[in-house]
Amino acid sequence: MIQYQTHEVLSHFPTAEGVQVLQDGSHEARVWSVLPFKNQGNPITPAELRKKIGDETSKVGQGRAFKNGWIAKEGDGLVKIVEQIQDTTLNDLQEVALTGTLKAGEKVLADLRKRKLIIQKKGQWFTIHKGPQFSTSTARPETDLTADMLVSGSWKTATYKKYNFEAEGIPTTGGALHPLLKVREEIRNIFLEMGFAEMPTSSFVESGFWCFDALFVPQQHPARDLQDTFYLSDPKESLPPNPKYYERVSQVHEHGGYGSAGYRAPWSQEESRKLLLRTHTTASSAHMLYKLAARCRGEVPEEDQKEFTHGASSTTSGPSSKDDDGFRPAKLFSIDRVFRNETMDATHLAEFHQVEGVVADRNLTLADLIGFMRVFFSKMGIEKIRFKPAYNPYTEPSLEIFAFHPMLDRWVEVGNSGMFRPEMLEPMGFPKDVRVHGWGLSLERPTMIRYGINNIRTLVGHKVSIDGIESSPAVMF
Ligand code: PHE
C-alpha cells in the first residue's frame, strides 16, 4: 500500500551544559557581562569572579574572553574593554538546537563537541509515498475459492489469505473412554494374553451363602455386620442352595472335616439365605469354582464347560477313565463392581471395582502364587512388589501385596491374595491335591495412582467433570 525510503542522518543536540549556555549565554559572555568597564569602577579579581559566577564558568569564560579581545587585566583585577559583544557560541548553539547542524560547518561543530556543549546522534527518517495498491480501506483476503468467484472471474484479482500450516485443527468431537474403563481394558488384556477366561459377574445381588459361607467366612465374622454389608429388604431371602453342597458347607463350619476342626459355632440357615450386595467378587469366583468342580463331583455338568477355557474347547463330559477324577485346571478372572457400607471419604466409596483372579491346578504352591503376582504386576508396569503375611478367612496362607510407588516414594498396598483353604475347596468336590490361589485388587487405586488423581470423587460419581474426562490425556488411545 505504501512505499518508503529510509534516510540516515547524523544530528547534533545540545548537552546539559549546552542547555545551560542556551539559557544564560556562553561562559565568556557571562564573564564579560559581570566585569566593569575599564576606568569605570573597581576591577574584579579572579577570586571575586569565581565567587560571582562559579569556578568552571570563570575558568573557561576568562580564557575565551581574553582570546576574543573582550577583557583585559588592570592591576590585580579584570575589566571589559569592548562596548558590545557577539556571543557566537550562543548563536551557534541556538542554530544547532534548531536545525541539528551548523552552516558554519564541521570545524565549528567539532569545536563545540570538544567543549562538550553538543553531542552527535544518529537519526533515521523516512520518505513515504503511496504504493501501487494504495487504498484508504482494507479488503478482507479470501480464504476460500468459491464457485461464484470462478463464474464471475473475480478469482483473478482477489487477494488470498496465506495458508497457515502451523494452525492446529479443531478438536474432533466423539466419545471418550473413562479412565476406569481404560485401565479395566488394559488389565483385561493382560489376563487374556496370559490365557485367562472371564467369569460372568452380572449378579450384584448374592446370598450370604455364596458371599461368605461357601468361602468359609464364619457367620460371626464382622464383615457380615450391617455396618459393613448392605442387606436387601425386598426380597430378603435367597432360594435354597443345592442341599447336598449346603449340607457339606454347614457341616464344615459347625463341626469341621477335611482335616479341619471347623468353627464349632452355631450356624443359621437364615443368615446364609440373607440377600445382600456382594462385598467382593470372590462370591462370583466361588460360584465358578463350584461349577468347575462339578465334573469331580461326578455330576455331568449341563452347563457348557467352555467358560473355563479361553477360546479353546474342552471336554464337556464327566471323568473319561478310572484314573481321571474329572478335574481340569482353570485360570479365571473378573473385573466388576462390589459394594461395602463404608464411610465415604477422598479414597473410599460405597461401591468400587475389584479385579479378581483365580488359578486352579494340582499341587500349586505359594511360590506359584508369588511368581504369578510378579509377572502379572510387571505387565501392569509395576516391577517392585513386596508381600506381607495377612489373614483372610478363606485363604491360608494369605498375602497382602505392596508395590513401590516411585512418585509417592513409598510402598502402597495394591492387593490381597492367598491359597484357598481346603474347608472351602473340598466341600465343593475338588480332589485333595487341587490347589487354588486367588487374589483381588481395586481397579480405582491403580487408576488414581496412574493418573495422579487424589480424590476418588473426581473419578467416580456425580462430581465427575465430563469435560475433564474428555480432555484428559488418560482417555486418548
Ligand atoms: N476377596 C479379597 C478382597 O476383597 C481378595 C482376595 C481374593 C483375596 C481371592 C484372596 C483370594 O480383598
UniProtKB/TrEMBL annotation:
The keyword ATP-binding belongs to this UniProt entry's keyword annotation: yes
GO terms of biological process kind: phenylalanyl-tRNA aminoacylation
One GO CC term, this protein: cytosol
Family annotation (Gene3D superfamilies): 1.10.10.2330, 3.30.1370.240, Bira Bifunctional Protein, Domain 2 (3.30.930.10)
Family annotation (PROSITE patterns): AA_TRNA_LIGASE_II
CDD domains: PheRS_alpha_core
InterPro entries associated with the record: aa-tRNA-synth_II, aa-tRNA-synth_II/BPL/LPL, Phenylalanyl-tRNA_Synthase, PheRS_DBD3
Pfam families noted in UniProt: PheRS_DBD3, tRNA-synt_2d
Domain Aminoacyl-transfer RNA synthetases class-II family profile, residue spans: 182-473
UniProt keywords, alphabetically: Aminoacyl-tRNA synthetase, ATP-binding, Ligase, Nucleotide-binding, Protein biosynthesis
Bias (Polar residues): 311-320
Chain spans, region Disordered: 301-328
Transmembrane spans: none
EC number(s) given by UniProt: 6.1.1.20
Name the record gives this protein: phenylalanine--tRNA ligase
Species this chain originates from: Hebeloma cylindrosporum
